[in-house]
């Protein structure tokens, strides 16, 4: 059975809630990613920040990214998936919550990877990709 661990790209990193958006943006650039999970004081995920969040909710709003903490953009309940979850569960989680990036955690609740649309496109059948697209974008 194909699992979330088989779909994900490894090496995902997170930022702490008190890091500035300027630092988060640099990290995204250096890692070549468009989203990073955010951890709270308890070292648990409290959200995800995307490059779009930084542009729309900070820069376009006239705010200084060097003065805005990552925690200010974390909204809602963070979504994640267990590394041993099957493909159907991964797709269901992403479709149900209409998300395009999904953090993957191991049994110790440590971040071990991320699943993005690109990962799905690289590893799933055309039928599975069509199902994903219909579920996330057709609403």
Q: Which key features would you list for this structure?
A:
alpha/beta; CBS-domain; 4-stranded mixed β-sheet; 3-stranded mixed β-sheet; 6 helices; 7 strands
What can you see in these coordinates?
The strands form 2 sheets. The chain has a 4-stranded mixed sheet with strand order 1-7-6-5. It has a 3-stranded mixed sheet with strand order 2-3-4. It is 38% helix and 20% strand. The chain is built from 6 helices and 7 strands. With 139 residues, the chain is α/β, with parallel strands linked by helices. The mean pLDDT is 90. It has a single domain (4-137), classed as CBS-domain.
Short description:
Helices cover 38% and strands 20% of the residues. The protein is α/β, with parallel strands linked by helices and 139 residues long. The strands form 2 sheets. Strands 1-7-6-5 form a 4-stranded mixed beta sheet. A 3-stranded mixed beta sheet has the order 2-3-4.
């Amino acid at each position: 059975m194909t699992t979330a661990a088989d779909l994900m790209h490894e090496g995902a990193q997170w930022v702490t809630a008190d890091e500035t958006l300027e630092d988060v943006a640099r990290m995204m650039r250096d890692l070549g990613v468009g989203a990073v999970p955010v951890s709270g004081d308890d070292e648990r995920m409290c959200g995800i920040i995307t490059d779009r969040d930084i542009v729309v909710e900070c820069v376009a709003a006239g705010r200084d990214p060097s003065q805005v903490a990552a925690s200010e953009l974390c909204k809602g309940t963070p979504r994640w998936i267990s590394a041993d979850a099957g493909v159907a569960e991964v797709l269901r989680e992403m479709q149900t919550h209409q998300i395009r990036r999904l953090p993957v955690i191991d049994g110790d609740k440590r971040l071990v990877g991320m699943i993005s649309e690109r990962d799905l496109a690289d590893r799933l059948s055309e039928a599975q990709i069509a199902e994903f697209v219909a579920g996330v974008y057709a609403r």
